[in-house]
Design goal:
alpha/beta; Aminopeptidase; Alpha-Beta Plaits; globular
Length: about 350
């Protein structure tokens, strides 16, 4: 089935023109709901998330979910063109979200329509999620409550150069706050919260997480922000800092918090404990399919909606991760075509197992 009046490149150009910041995906969800209706396909909507099922859905069969996200980040300041009305090119598809993850989104839509009428040994479910970029409560977190009993395995669409991420680091963001006593800098009064924070940061940087992941290696910890002081002659009584941690499957986020808090004087507060690391067992049929097709695999250092689901998955899609969130974002038209062909080949092979 492919009755769409759009080709893949034109559909991506149209989606790029529709602003869809995290939490503001209404217009894009509206457009795609109409798009599917024009194909004779029903799209269910939960807030700004869309769910589409193949015509031959049989609940006695397992279900494969195709998932990519509708939202984008805010545009970077260095754009040389309007990110929503980019220049036309036959070889490049420019604009905000074209690479992350518009190309995967469109490739999955065309792949889903390709298989829509077919009877396969598993159901095909297309889940287009909101709020992926900001880990919002009304994206996959909400959607998975509806789908977790139905979905058995998933392909997550993100720009990977069509390599297969078979594992993905989690994300733990910690807000640290050191507290001291303010005073006049000239008289060496007070207790300097900035010094406390610096000692704590040094302690955090020295942490050794001994349990190594066979696929991801060690947990990565980086201090990324620090803020203190109101003026030059006042000893700061508060110092705030941010720690970015990329866990492996060897440690859950609660365990990491239990390890770190006793090591420092600052109060550590996790923004979320749910952004887990993910790894698919080597014997799973998705992994067997990846190996059979000779697709290069790797461990992804970046997160996606994979961390919000609980079934086995792989992350794969057209475009390159290094282009994500950069000014003058683009994806190549041939990469988009390769994405569609790659997804179709992957699902076709999976159906033969």
């Amino acid at each position: 089935m492919n009755r769409t009046p759009y080709n893949a490149a034109d559909l991506l150009r149209k989606l790029v023109s529709i602003r869809s910041f995290s939490g503001e995906e209404e217009a894009r969800a509206d457009f795609l709901t109409r798009f599917f209706h024009e194909q004779g396909v029903i799209a269910e909507r939960t807030v700004n998330n869309l769910i589409v099922r193949n015509r031959q859905t049989d609940r006695s069969k397992p279900t494969l979910m195709l998932n990519s996200h509708l939202d984008t980040v805010q545009p970077a300041s260095g754009y040389r063109f309007d990110p929503f009305t980019p220049p036309y090119s036959d070889t490049h598809l420019y604009g905000l979200g074209s690479n992350d993850a518009g190309a995967s989104l469109v490739a999955m839509i065309f792949t889903f329509l390709h298989f829509y009428e077919q009877s396969m040994p598993f159901n095909l479910l297309l889940a287009l999620s909101a709020e992926e970029e900001n880990s919002g409560p009304n994206g996959m977190r909400l959607l998975w409550q509806q789908l977790q009993e139905e979905v058995d395995m998933a392909i997550i669409g993100e720009p990977t150069g069509m390599k297969a991420a078979i594992a993905e680091r989690g994300l733990l963001v910690i807000d640290g706050e050191a507290r001291g006593v303010s005073g006049h800098a000239a008289r060496n009064e007070g207790v300097n919260a900035l010094y406390i924070a610096l000692e704590d940061i040094a302690a955090l940087r020295s942490v050794k997480f001994d349990r190594l992941s066979p696929t991801m290696g060690e947990v990565k910890l980086t201090v990324t922000q620090i803020q203190a002081g109101v003026q030059h002659n006042v000893v700061p009584d508060r110092c705030r800092f941010v720690v970015d941690i990329r866990p492996t499957e060897q440690y859950n986020n609660c365990e990491i918090m239990e390890i770190l808090q006793p090591m420092v004087k600052s109060k550590l507060t996790a923004r979320s404990l749910t952004n887990k690391s993910s790894a698919t067992p080597a014997a799973h049929r998705l992994m067997q399919c990846i190996r059979r097709l000779g697709i290069e695999s790797y461990t992804s250092p970046t997160t996606s909606d994979w961390m919000r689901i609980t079934c086995p998955a792989v992350k794969i899609g057209p475009g390159e991760s290094a282009r994500s969130h950069q000014a003058d974002e683009f994806v190549l038209t041939n990469e988009l075509a390769q994405g569609i062909n790659g997804y179709i080949e992957l699902i076709t092979q999976l159906a033969k197992q």
